[in-house]
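User: New here, please read:
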Amino acid sequence: MKAQGERSRTGSVAEHSNGTNSNCAPGHFKPKSLSLLTCPPLMSIQRVPLEAVQKIRQYLKTILIVPESENCPDRYTEQDEPPMPESLEELGSLFHFGISLEQTLQMPNRQGQWFISAANPGAALMKLPGLALKPGLRLVSYLYRLDNDGTGVTWAIPEQFSTTEYLEKALMSAGDACTALHDRNTPPKPEAALPNLMDAIEGDHSLMSFLIASLLYRELLEFGKVGRSASWNHQHLIKALPPHPNWQWCTEIPKDFSPKVRVVPDGRVAIEFFTCRTVAPIAIFQHVDQYQAGQYHPKSVDRAIALLRPTNGGVKH
């Protein structure tokens, strides 16, 4: 089972990490999803200050935080002595000491077994301008941790299916439960989950609400990802090309790196913004989302458009 909400990732960094341009010829990346950006008739374009976009992203990052007890759960064995509790919450955790993972599938662990997160990703929408969670729906997350590495998946489900009973049932329902629970690529899918988590979002259809939805979408897809699974967290929003002489371009150089919202008369909306991946291999990414009229479920394309040839210097951002 593939996790819902996967974005199209054309021209990934991995394809070009050798520094060659065998796949970096102009025109190599021509996904249909970018068509709205090249349709000039009767299209209105609004540029958004980068500072406003960064402020929204920072807000999302402060809300969408995995509890430390789940991000780095303690690894007890039956021979270990439990730590002295310093709070009522820690005292309650002692009741789980010595219980096997088979008996408590929902317990956080670092043994490579999916578990239910106590976090509420929907809290991010409580103060987010222009967007809201549709009535009767809830966002729930499952996490996977193996030592210091891990991933996560978030689903939108009806509230009546968000009880622990239903969420635990999903842990055991994916084929061979013992195998699935230890497979990072087979996340649990709860009963009645919506095909895409953004189907649970509604809004005022303002131009800014669509740009906010694009940021929210990526933050929710990244939620729970650490170590080698993290990707979006390493990408910094930009409004200009970071100064460096050794950029290797895979497409034509964009004339404008500022975040933009584009609208056509039929109500469709396109979002475009750029980021710089600041860990090796360093790259410039173009992000394009297309929204059908009245919807907040985007068709997304994230593509590397330039790679930094290795040098002794770094990138200023």
